[in-house]
């Protein structure tokens, strides 16, 4: 029920339906859903999926946490994704968004002066703001003029709060912040400054238009006049999971399986990992496992998948090349070495499911206790389509038999036959 096309399932054909039926397995926090076929979600097939905890261990730190405190950050292109992707492959220039949206609203140069999104607060109240990056490319530096805030969650994992003035949020990452509405009643700019691209490449893109409004109750209905004052940025390594999440639970011993994933671009704009550029298999990896694949040579293609054994400590290292937010499906992981540092932390490393590889070696660990076929990929969707991904085939035999074997409903089994019946122009 994870969803990536040709990893866990075949795509859902047009004019059909597919039911995703799963248990949240006691997970709470900020998640999201989106198409996982080519660059389709760049055209808007995406949304938020918050899971609330009625007994939140950090619930005493905030007063309000509801639908009004959800903030989405996304990019908007004036070309459809297939056209943008084709242009990228021909020119090597990654598509630049024409605008960046906060809660679905934003402006671009020369465009209409549409109203900005508004987040309403009451002076004296404390808010848990749930911030989701639904972007296909840029990462954002998020801040609120004249306000400090505490980072308390990374990708569904609560951490001891860390006070900052701004935070970088990469594609697919989610965070929660605690905002104390303790400033003078008025209007303040919420800023999501986009990076990860040259705005000069698109004259319509103006980072100063990537704004929303924090409005105190009683303030006039006008746009803010506040200015951005750079302050302390979150350093990811300062985040430590709360005690209920058992920080450092993977220990400091040597890993059972160590994998280095080296990124290169011998054939730009396409990416290689360990000399291989990812291409979607013709048959989903999970279906191959259920059909008896147990070794790398059994998988088609075998070069793009790693077989990992059950219940072992897995360590993944990615030498830094560019800015790439890597998402691992099926697991949260401990980032024992964050990018741009040589410090290794096994005692209480940050834990999340999307990590930024940004110019320095990065290492994370997880326990292979969840049988399945799990995608590890850059969440800049244009980079994923250009080959920046691998698949972990985890505990092959456990998928077929035993207490953790896969449940395969009829509509899941029917996806590939229905998809294969489509005319090529619809595939």
Write up what this structure looks like.
The protein is built from 5 helices and 25 strands. It is mainly beta and 427 residues long. It folds into 2 domains: 29-234, Cupredoxins -  blue copper proteins (Immunoglobulin-like, Sandwich); 257-426, Cupredoxins -  blue copper proteins (Immunoglobulin-like, Sandwich), CATH 2.60.40.420. The strands form 6 sheets. It has a 6-stranded mixed β-sheet with strand order 4-3-6-11-8-9, with no helix packed on it. Strands 5-13-12-7-10 form a 5-stranded mixed β-sheet, with no helix packed on it. It has a 5-stranded mixed β-sheet with strand order 14-18-23-20-21, with no helix packed on it. The radius of gyration is 22 Å and the shape is globular. The relative contact order is 0.16. It holds the Pfam family Cu-oxidase. Belongs to the multicopper oxidase family. This is Laccase.
Quick overview of this protein structure:
It holds the Pfam family Cu-oxidase_3. By secondary structure, this protein is mainly beta. It has five helices and 25 strands.
CATH C-level class of the largest domain is Mainly Beta
Which strand-content bin applies to the residues? 25-35%
Major beta-sheet overview: 6 strands, mixed
The total strand number stands at 25
The radius of gyration computed from the alpha-carbon positions, rounded to a whole number of angstroms, is 22 Å
Low-pLDDT segments: none
Order of helices and strands: EEEHEEEEEEEEEEEEEHEEEEEEEEHEHH
């Amino acid at each position: 029920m994870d969803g990536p096309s040709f990893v866990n399932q075949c795509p859902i054909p047009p004019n059909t339906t597919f039911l995703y039926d799963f248990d949240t397995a006691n997970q709470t926090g900020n998640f999201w859903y989106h198409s996982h076929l080519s660059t389709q979600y760049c055209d808007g097939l995406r949304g938020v999926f918050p899971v609330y905890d009625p007994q939140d261990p950090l619930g005493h730190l905030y007063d309000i946490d509801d639908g009004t405190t959800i903030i989405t950050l996304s990019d908007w292109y004036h070309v459809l994704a297939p056209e943008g992707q084709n242009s990228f492959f021909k020119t090597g220039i990654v598509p630049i968004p024409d605008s960046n949206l906060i809660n679905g609203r934003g402006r671009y140069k020369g465009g209409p002066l549409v109203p900005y999104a508004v987040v309403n607060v009451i002076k004296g109240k404390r808010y848990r703001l749930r911030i989701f990056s639904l972007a296909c490319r840029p990462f954002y530096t998020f801040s609120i003029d004249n306000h400090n805030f505490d980072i308390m969650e990374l990708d569904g994992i609560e951490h001891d709060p860390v006070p900052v003035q701004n935070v970088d949020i990469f594609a697919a990452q989610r965070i929660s912040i605690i905002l104390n509405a303790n400033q003078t009643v008025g209007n303040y700019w919420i800023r999501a400054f986009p990076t990860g691209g040259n705005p000069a490449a698109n004259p319509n893109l103006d980072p100063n238009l990537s704004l929303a409004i924090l409005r105190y109750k009683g303030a006039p209905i006008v746009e803010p006049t506040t200015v951005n004052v750079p302050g302390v940025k979150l350093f990811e390594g300062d985040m430590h999971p709360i005690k209920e999440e058992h920080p450092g639970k993977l220990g400091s011993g040597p890993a059972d399986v160590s994998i280095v994933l080296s990124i290169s671009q011998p054939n730009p704009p396409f990416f290689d990992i360990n000399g291989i550029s990812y291409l979607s298999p013709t048959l989903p990896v999970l279906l191959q496992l259920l059909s008896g694949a147990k070794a790398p040579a059994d998988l088609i293609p075998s070069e793009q998948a790693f077989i990992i054994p059950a219940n072992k400590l897995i360590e993944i290292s990615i030498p830094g090349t560019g800015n790439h937010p890597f998402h691992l499906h099926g697991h949260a992981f401990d980032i024992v070495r964050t990018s741009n540092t040589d410090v290794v932390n096994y005692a209480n490393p940050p834990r999340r499911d999307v990590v930024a590889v940004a110019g320095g070696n990065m290492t994370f660990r997880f326990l292979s206790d969840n049988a399945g076929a799990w995608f590890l990929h850059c969440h800049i969707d244009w980079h994923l389509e250009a080959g920046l991904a691998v698949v972990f085939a985890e505990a092959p035999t456990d998928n077929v038999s035993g207490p953790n074997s896969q449940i395969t409903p009829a509509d899941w089994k029917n996806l590939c036959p229905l998809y294969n019946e489509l005319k090529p122009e619809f595939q």
